[in-house]
Queue: 2 jobs
Job 1
Amino acid sequence: MNINMFIDGEWRESLSGGRKDILNPATGEVIASAASGTVEDTKLAIKAARGAFDSGIWSNLSVDERADYLYKIADRLEEKAAEIALLETENNGKVIRATTNVDIPVTIQTFRYYADQIKLMEQESYTRADSSETIIIQEPVGVCGLIVPWNFPLMIAAWSIAPALAAGNTVVLKPAEVTPVSVYKLFGIFEEVGLPAGVANLILGPGSKMGNELAESFEVDKVAFTGGTQAGQSILRAAAGNMKKVTLELGGKSPLIIFDDVDFETAVENAMFGIFHNAGQVCTAASRLLVHETIYDRFVERLAERANKIVVGNGESETIEMGPLTNESHMIEVLHYIKSGIEEGARLVCGGNRITENGLDQGFFIAPTIFADVNPNMRIVKEEIFGPVLVVEKFKDEEDAVRKANDSIYGLAGAVFTEDIDRARRVVSKLRAGITWINSYHLAYVDSPWGGYKQSGIGRSLGAIGLEYFMELKQINIHQKANPVGWYAN
Ligand code: NAD
């Protein structure tokens, strides 16, 4: 597969001619060749988006017309769902049951949701004592740079591109360098449904240069970024030049709290799903498990026993429960974290190694890994690892659980498992996190705002508010005719 950039309605090579091999992380095989662009390509894409926005070709359409495009995009995605799910599995490594049942359906739902949502937007109006009127309208922000990560390449792209387009913006999208395939297919659909040239542009290449240009450019009005906290900080700084609007969906180190009144096996399975889903490469991964001291030893033992049985392999098979890490350098980084955990004295209770047996030696697999008896100063407890690595701590009581749960620079997600629903609500109300669950984990709903407290980000994706972050508010104060002010004597 030959993947190029899509700029001003045309498929283009990079101006520099640069290309990058795209790998299947389960096999190490090259599955595609993608253009690898530069700052110059980024400038071209921004120019196209600027021109399309300023011409009004998109923002002047009625909301019904824009919504129709989004419905058509969703319909085409639905027709190609099986093909795109398989491509996502091949490019990202995530298991086919996830791409088939989560990534692609949620992507489709997101386009439909924002098509519905833009039609529901209402304007406010006030009539004054002097019969003048104020109306408050929402307008698109302008040119939006959308920068997305590799862990849910298509779904997270949809979380920003669907509301951005629904609102009337034009966009330049930059996927992560290693996972361009599904997004490339999406842009093929944009072309098929006849999205006007320049409205949606795709650039491919390194984030530090191309993403940074999107954040710095005075021709870009907003950046919506999903990725690591460090890159988020760099974007915030780069965006200061023209004071562009910025929303940031960043990392996490989310706690899952288990009280001793739970159904033991169900809680164990949920804790496994919390951390090992998508091989731990989920921003909300429940990477810190807090277990009540009375069941801690038994819980750790059972968790390790079951984690050792997780079926790891090439996610193209329906029976596989956990796939590889998405790229080699990330796998190496995760292995370094595991080494640091051992060196800092944490007790490794399972995993801790790369898996190379049974034909997995060319892929980037790490065994489900659990550390017990950790302390809050260890790197594996403080830092986001973004892999299948869990740390387990014990707690004494409710207060201790909340204190430990909140002891993080992050505040993306958190969960509580207990059959005492009053206690669950009390605890959740004290968690400093934007996404919380009681007796479940990882469920995401397109109608509910997604994002974090503290260093996990700024703003929210999804929900009605996810659309508002792509709009500006304007007040229009209307007098039918001008009246004298009566302020000046002469
Ligand atoms: P990353 O920060 O390395 O890259 C994300 C994107 O930003 C990529 O497209 C990359 O090319 C680009 N980029 C990198 N440096 C940049 C810079 N200086 N300026 C502009 N763009 C830059 O993240 P990743 O490794 O792709 O993804 C993993 C991270 O994303 C984790 O920290 C995870 O928690 C986070 N994440 C957060 C959410 C959320 O909704 N909060 C969702 C998914 C992933």
Job 2
Amino acid sequence: MAELGTWTRAMRSGLGTDTSHKAVVPPIHLSTNYVFAAPGESSGYDYSRAGNPTRDLLSDALATLEGGAAATVVATGLAAVTLLVEELVPVGGVVVCQHDCYGGTWRLLNHHATRGRLEARFVDFNDPEVFKASLDGASMVLAETPSNPLLRITDLRAVAEATHAAGAQLVADNTFCSPLLQRPIDLGADYVLHSTTKFINGHSDVVGGAVVTRDPETAEHVGWLANVLGLTAGAFDSYLTLRGLRTLDARIRMHAINTEAVVDAAQGHPAVAALHWPGLETHPGHELAARQQSGFGSLLSIDLAGGRPAAERFLQGLQVFHLAESLGGVESLICHPATMTHAGMSPEARAVAGIGDGLLRLSVGLEAAEDLAAAITEALDRAQGRGESAG
Ligand code: PLP
């Protein structure tokens, strides 16, 4: 019999396993607690914070897709960061993170640093010398690639090598790619973290997170710690996220088609000062992305030549795209990082990271490609002072 491929195994997680009624879709287990046969004789599940069958199906699917030993499903993407900080960083330890990481990650690490829990070093991962110099005494390196919102690409293989040589562990935030476009463990990462809120669930109706661990022994400890810290996800959220994950492959393919249409509409428009998308040959990380990813993703950002006033004109009356945080859902979204996702960063940190007031980040959804392209062309015309609502 032919062995099933990774996607098929993950996509079918739990299907047809119901022993009560032979339901095709595994039922959701909402019970907070489980009957013991006798004192000390648990069925394998005792209390839902510690273990839940619905959550375990999602964990299995994620571990399969990322090629890890196991996954721990937690309440949010930031809970996944918290879990890894607690797992890897002793009090007074050092975390090295990209200077242009997700604003919430920056705020979390900065909070711990301000309170003296750890030292957070935010550096440019695209500068190998600066990166290597930052590793002294580090226990955790957090790489987010492509980065949010500028889509910079980090060489995971090179970063893993330097991280391990310095005695630290590499965590890759794979939220932007999903395991279908990038598998950081294959490239040397020790842990993968996800905000499953994004592509994994894909329907913008669950906030969730996960940590996938390469090593089986460590994986057990990470799962134990998530229970100890009270970070694990609820059954409903796990159920919905697994339902969303079952269509991930189909969604990623259509996201890619639509993103090309949006990029084509934006490229070369005079209102655009810079277009950041790793699929463009002009993107500094294009070759690396082509090597380490199996697609360029559906996030892009547009730096408008006219700064914030142009961004406001662009957004006024924008069709199809909603102005909202988050990304990776079926619906197209646009955000203004300086006042939204990255408002938690200090203005100085934003300036260092290159996040200006004219920058807009787009998450291209699954609407008809021609409607998305038309909306962007109209908005760019407005940004430039052309078109109906400009005057
Ligand atoms: N990592 C990245 C790259 C993100 O974009 C986000 C959220 O936007 C997070 C982590 C945090 O995830 P959550 O919002 O699910 O806590």
